[in-house]
Amino acid sequence: SELIRGFLLSGMPCPSSCPPGLLALMAPGLALMATFSLPSQAGDRRTLPVEKPPGVKGRTLILLDVNTKSPVRIISENFLSLQLDPSIIHDGWLDFLSSRRLVTLARGLAPAFLRFAGKRTDFLQFHNVKNPAKSRGGPGPDYYLKNYEDDIVRSDIALDKQKGCKIAQHPDIMLELQREKAAQMHLVLLKEQFSNTYSNLTLTARSLDKLYNFADCSGLHLIFALNALRRNPNNSWNSSNALSLLKYSASKKYNISWELGNEPNNYRTLIGRSVNGSQLGKDYTQLRSLLQLIRTYSRAHLYGPNIGRPRKNVIAFLEGFMKVAGGTVDAVTWQHYYIDGRVAKVTDFLKTRLLDTLSDQIRKIQKVVNTYTPGKKIWLEGVGTTSGGGMNNLSDSYAAGFLWLNTLGLLANQGIDVVVRHSFLDHGHNHLVDQNFNPLPDYWLSLLYKRLIGPKVLAIHVAGLQRKPRPGRVIRDKLRIYAHCTSYHNHNYVRGSITLYIINLHRSRKKIKLAGTLRDKTVHQYLLQPYGKDGLHSKLVQLNGQPLAMVDDGTLPELKPRPLRAGRTLVIPPLTMSFYVVKNVNALACRYR
């Protein structure tokens, strides 16, 4: 086979009688769904121990080939998308979305959806007021910020560099005041979150304008989640406030997609009154009817129900919803958080068992969806590494990237069409951009993914030599390999190129020899490592040894690869994430869009 021939070409002699386990590994039909890891649930499929050939001293050599004939999955061009939580109204950051720096960072991740939703979605009220009264309170950051409001508007208009796109350069004093205000509000928001009691939020017409302007300027498509907790006495949805928002958006010709509610399976804990799946399905049917009455939104997309983790009661909720509204929504959505952010440790992000928890959830969701609406697209919305707002120097550090990159690979392989990251900018420590508007490690990881990864997912074939596993231990699941066609939007690579992305959770380096169709091809390496003395806790990263930082407010750095000579073995450093573009493969699966 091609794979065994690649093994022989690697220069490592195979014994005259290879062990049966090794021959089984080298079978060309072995495809691990584009990942080199084995699910933790597959206890009876652990890697078989093999003998070490002469000259191999306890090291692992992995032979890797990719099926280049056809993709196993094709995901959305907007696969990696973003979320903004309505709490940015509360803490004031919404007024700063016109910042040139934020727009530049968001543009780097386009094309994508921008979902405006979160815990406070169902406490959001729309008021069609352009200029609310200024604060009459005493001195303080909120007082001064509101009185700077007219200056913000003038700067937006003065610095309009793109037709229909308002970009501002906010004075440093305003940003300092805003950070002071946000720090005060952060404690309030955390108290609300942990007590599960939320105050109402008001979204003005002007705030909606700013939100849409940010999305439109950044090349993002806005998805707006409407308040589902406005209820009539018979528990049906009261759509009056939503209708006011829809009419205003239509009058501005805003191109928006819609949702209704956020984690509706948890409403009993929020308001002491539950909404079951079939009732929410009726509410979605009502919303679809409203959209059809408004010409601008007669063909608008509608997504839902955005349930939480699929436990038994949540699955029952989803079944009730799908029976009534399965054909009404354009994609079925749910959300997932891996760890309680209040108790997380850095070692949690290295646990393969944790990385694999998502697989079982995907299967549960897919089973229900395919029962009622076979082939319906499924999205994972509101995904984050940790819940509870995250933890400083942990969920916003390099270490959190292992979960994030594995999530992207796993979801793409299992056919999830879109994943929405919570959050682009927010309070807490789960975001991609901090409150100084500096990109965090997961931003740079997402930027590399956007630049290098296309929507076509490829199956990989692997064979390897390894040490004898200890009892009850699988070595392979700490090395995860995914393969896609290289992004068509990246003009540095011709169509037909392939991109691998690799997670090495081992505390030792691993070697990979490209075989078959990938043999003797030039490779570009993009190795992402922590930068500075903080190691895995670092909020700074380096690409191929060079620290990554914005050039200025309007310019992202060039992501320079390190060319590797054709045929060279890939050496994967311990505890790292990396991308490898295999050039000029001329892969049939990747030649055409």
Shape: globular
Which structural class best describes the helix and strand composition?
alpha/beta
Range of helix content: 25-40%
Mean pLDDT: 83
Biggest sheet architecture = 9 strands, antiparallel
Radius of gyration, in Å, reads 25 Å
Give the CATH class. Answer: Alpha Beta
Low-confidence stretches: 1-58, 133-137, 149-161, 469-475
Secondary-structure arrangement, i.e. CATH architecture = Alpha-Beta Barrel
Task: State the total count of DSSP E strands.
Answer: 24
- What is the subunit organization of this protein? single chain
Q: Please, what is the CATH homologous superfamily?
A: Glycosidases
Q: How much β-strand is present in the residues?
A: 15-25%
Gap between N and C termini: 30 Å
Question: Can you count the helices?
Answer: 16
How would you describe what is shown here?
β20 (541-543) and β21 (546-547) form a beta hairpin. The chain is an alpha/beta fold. The protein has helices spanning 2-9, 20-25, 87-91, 100-107, 141-147, 149-158, 172-195, 205-218, 240-251, 267-271, 277-293, 312-325, 352-355, 357-372, 401-413, 441-452, and strands at 61-66, 73-74, 80-84, 112-116, 124-127, 201-204, 220-226, 256-260, 302-307, 331-334, 337-340, 377-387, 418-422, 453-458, 460-465, 479-486, 498-504, 510-514, 523-530, 541-543, 546-547, 562-564, 570-572, 576-582. The chain has a single domain, classed as Glycosidases (TIM Barrel, Alpha-Beta Barrel). The protein contains 16 helices and 24 strands. The strands form four sheets. Strands 2, 14, 16, 17, 19, 20, 21, 22 and 24 form a nine-stranded antiparallel beta sheet that branches. An eight-stranded parallel barrel has the order 3-4-7-8-9-10-12-13, surrounded by six helices.
